[in-house]
Design brief:
The chain has two helices and twelve strands.
């Protein structure tokens, strides 16, 4: 980013935002020129992307880790396949979405999971707000783990309920019942899907 007038750099300076100038705005995101003080006391600028939809929620959205549990089956992680225009191709992702007005992260996670996969589950835990891409934007998400009882009738043949601009299908990554659920088997499956022309893999 651009350098501006330097100040006394004899010692480290606390970094802070000096100003934010709107340069472009669309329906969902806006671009700002952020002026800030760096650790050496120099004034610098940064191009920052922000969502226009944030209205006081604890985070912009939720990212769901759905764990499907069925009798006599290994636990599975459920992912969704979606076409992403910025990447020009299909991506395999954890289900995710924005938090609506007056909606809790838990409620948003269960709603988005049902919309994108058709599954209904229970929230096991959720994280504080975490940054999505802090070098580019201020977008944040809660990471929510949801357990799904695959033996329940409503989860035997789930049908996604996506909106018109967000069509998706889902797939499973099976584990061996241990810690490799989200690592070894997931990695092997990612290699296979890459060979089939899918990717990048978007997890957060």
């Amino acid at each position: 980013m651009d350098n501006q007038e330097p100040t006394d750099s004899s010692q480290n300076t606390k970094q802070f935002i000096i100003s934010e100038e709107l340069t472009a705005e669309g329906k969902w995101v806006k671009l700002e020129k952020t002026t800030y003080m760096d650790p050496t006391g120099k004034t610098r600028t940064w191009e920052t992307v922000k969502r226009t939809t944030r209205k006081g929620q604890s985070a912009d959205g939720v990212t769901i880790i759905p764990v499907l549990q069925r009798t006599l089956h290994y636990e599975c992680i459920v992912l969704v396949k979606q076409f992403r225009p910025p990447l020009g191709g299909y991506c395999l992702e954890f289900p995710a979405g924005l938090i609506d007005d007056n909606e809790s992260p838990e409620a948003a996670a269960l709603r988005e999971l049902e919309e994108e996969t058709g599954y209904k589950g229970d929230v096991a835990e959720w994280s504080p707000a975490v940054g999505m891409d802090p070098g580019l934007s201020n977008c944040t998400t809660h990471i929510v783990t949801v357990t799904i009882n695959g033996d329940e009738a409503e989860n035997v043949r789930p049908k996604p309920k996506p909106g018109p601009a967000k069509m998706s299908s889902f797939c499973f990554f099976a584990g061996d019942g241990g810690m490799s659920l989200s690592f070894q088997c997931l990695s092997t499956s990612m290699v296979w899907w890459s060979g089939e022309g899918y990717g990048p893999f978007v997890f957060f």
